């Protein structure tokens, strides 16, 4: 196990460098950030030159990347064009998005797996058909439509929740945005769990457990569900990074000042330091989440061993 973890950590290094380099190049292709800062007006040459020197934009791209990576390893993600440290923006945005992601993942695990088990055990029955049709509708409808509809019904018409989240973004105000953020992934988790349960319910080890006279709930939880969760855990693990980075639409609808909001503002204003800094942390989150998922495999299925 120890060797496996060390090997995976070493494998993360080239992946991290490759991903950050690609992001850095893509952000620089977006256009000249100084020209974007000036907008439609012509930049004052002296001011433009000073800004390029201050932000290191007068150097070649490869040199900018090396300088940036050197600063990243010391915890310095640069400075935004408004003079605010990117690390300060992160310290306010990431806790909010982390809470939103936790709510979304909780919906995926609780609702998605429960519905998947229910439909997998009742394959072909009306409840199975109804849930499958509902998940197809959720997957087909874009998230911004789901979000706006939920905000209109629960926030404006019925006044069950506030239409917008307050700047502090407490956990109770993130329940509806979390459900909207998780909606598509929740549908996929339901369908994955259903397929896995329906396939494994006919396995020899399940029939053996039933023949031994074990209670039904024990057969389902200890034998059937445990062996059916590996593809579901894989999906949820990879979904953590996607939820944190892909919350732009949900955060815009509910006025949440999290990672998605900062990324949107950074892209809109061509603030390369902010965009690259936030995406760099998201890459780290994605890599760590995948490592944890791989380690969970051995817990779910003891037959899996790490060399």
TrEMBL record:
<dbReference type="InterPro" id="IPR045621">
    <property type="entry name" value="BPD_transp_1_N"/>
</dbReference>
<dbReference type="GO" id="GO:0055085">
    <property type="term" value="P:transmembrane transport"/>
</dbReference>
<dbReference type="GO" id="GO:0005886">
    <property type="term" value="C:plasma membrane"/>
</dbReference>
<feature type="transmembrane region" description="Helical">
    <location>
        <begin position="131"/>
        <end position="154"/>
    </location>
</feature>
<protein>
    <submittedName>
        <fullName>ABC transporter permease</fullName>
    </submittedName>
</protein>
<feature type="domain" description="ABC transmembrane type-1">
    <location>
        <begin position="94"/>
        <end position="297"/>
    </location>
</feature>
<keyword id="KW-0472">Membrane</keyword>
<dbReference type="Pfam" id="PF00528">
    <property type="entry name" value="BPD_transp_1"/>
</dbReference>
<feature type="transmembrane region" description="Helical">
    <location>
        <begin position="228"/>
        <end position="254"/>
    </location>
</feature>
<feature type="transmembrane region" description="Helical">
    <location>
        <begin position="274"/>
        <end position="300"/>
    </location>
</feature>
<feature type="transmembrane region" description="Helical">
    <location>
        <begin position="174"/>
        <end position="193"/>
    </location>
</feature>
<dbReference type="Pfam" id="PF19300">
    <property type="entry name" value="BPD_transp_1_N"/>
</dbReference>
<keyword id="KW-0813">Transport</keyword>
<feature type="transmembrane region" description="Helical">
    <location>
        <begin position="12"/>
        <end position="31"/>
    </location>
</feature>
<dbReference type="InterPro" id="IPR035906">
    <property type="entry name" value="MetI-like_sf"/>
</dbReference>
<feature type="transmembrane region" description="Helical">
    <location>
        <begin position="96"/>
        <end position="119"/>
    </location>
</feature>
<comment type="similarity">
    <text>Belongs to the binding-protein-dependent transport system permease family.</text>
</comment>
<keyword id="KW-1133">Transmembrane helix</keyword>
<dbReference type="InterPro" id="IPR000515">
    <property type="entry name" value="MetI-like"/>
</dbReference>
<keyword id="KW-0812">Transmembrane</keyword>
<keyword id="KW-1003">Cell membrane</keyword>
């Amino acid at each position: 196990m120890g060797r496996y973890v060390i090997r995976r950590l070493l494998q993360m290094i080239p992946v991290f460098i490759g991903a950050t380099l690609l992001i850095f190049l893509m952000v620089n292709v977006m256009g000249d950030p100084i020209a974007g800062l000036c907008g439609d007006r012509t930049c004052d040459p002296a001011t433009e030159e000073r800004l390029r020197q201050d932000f290191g934009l007068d150097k070649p791209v490869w040199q900018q990347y090396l300088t940036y990576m050197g600063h990243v390893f010391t915890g310095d993600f640069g400075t935004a064009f408004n003079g605010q440290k990117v690390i300060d923006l992160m310290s306010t945005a990431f806790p909010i998005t982390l809470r939103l992601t936790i709510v979304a993942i909780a919906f995926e695990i609780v609702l998605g797996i429960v519905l998947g088990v229910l439909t997998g055990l009742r394959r072909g029955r009306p409840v199975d058909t109804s849930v499958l049709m509902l998940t197809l509708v959720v997957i087909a409808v874009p998230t911004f439509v789901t979000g706006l509809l939920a905000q209109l019904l629960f926030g404006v018409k019925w006044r069950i929740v506030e239409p917008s989240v307050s700047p502090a973004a407490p956990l109770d105000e993130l329940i509806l945005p979390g459900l909207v953020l998780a909606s598509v992934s929740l549908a996929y988790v339901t369908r994955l769990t259903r397929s896995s349960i329906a396939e494994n319910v006919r396995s020899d080890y399940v029939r053996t457990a039933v023949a031994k006279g074990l209670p039904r709930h024990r057969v389902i939880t200890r034998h059937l569900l445990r062996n059916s969760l590996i593809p579901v855990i894989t999906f949820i693990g990879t979904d953590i990074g996607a939820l944190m980075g892909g919350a732009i639409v949900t955060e815009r609808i509910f006025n949440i000042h999290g990672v998605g909001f900062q990324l949107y503002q950074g892209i809109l204003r061509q603030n390369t330091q902010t965009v690259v800094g936030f995406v760099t942390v998201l890459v780290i989150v994605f890599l760590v989440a995948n490592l944890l998922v791989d380690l969970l495999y051995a817990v779910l299925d003891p037959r899996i061993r790490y060399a």
